[in-house]
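Researcher: Next entry in the queue.
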Amino acid sequence: MAKSVCILVRRSPYGVIQAAEAVRHINGALGNDFAMTAVFADDGVYSLKAGQEVGGTGFTNLGAALTDTIAKGDPRAKFAVHRPSAEARGLKEVDLLPGVTWINDAELAAMLVDTANVMLF
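Model: Structure for this entry, 121 residues:
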């Protein structure tokens, strides 16, 4: 298996540090020549919500950071959202950042099995 990592983001983007750390690790993996798949599930799907307003939370706008990373179009990078998680939270494709693939349970399981390393946030 080539150098690869699947970064699974399950925590909400604001109020806790895990999602921000995941974004940092996404960029770090790409900077260190890893093939990287970022999957957003459970409350982590909110990290991909377009038009995020952080207000006075003191947190970085993860939507802007992810938009920049996705827009680079690095062929080693894949971004996915777990459809059941997004739909359970009332999110549709138009609500999320462009360039993200929607996946089901079986596709999520395959991604986790097909990578050398998994990081959970």
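Model: Strands lie at 4-9, 35-40, 77-82, 101-103, 117-120.
Researcher: Noted, moving on.
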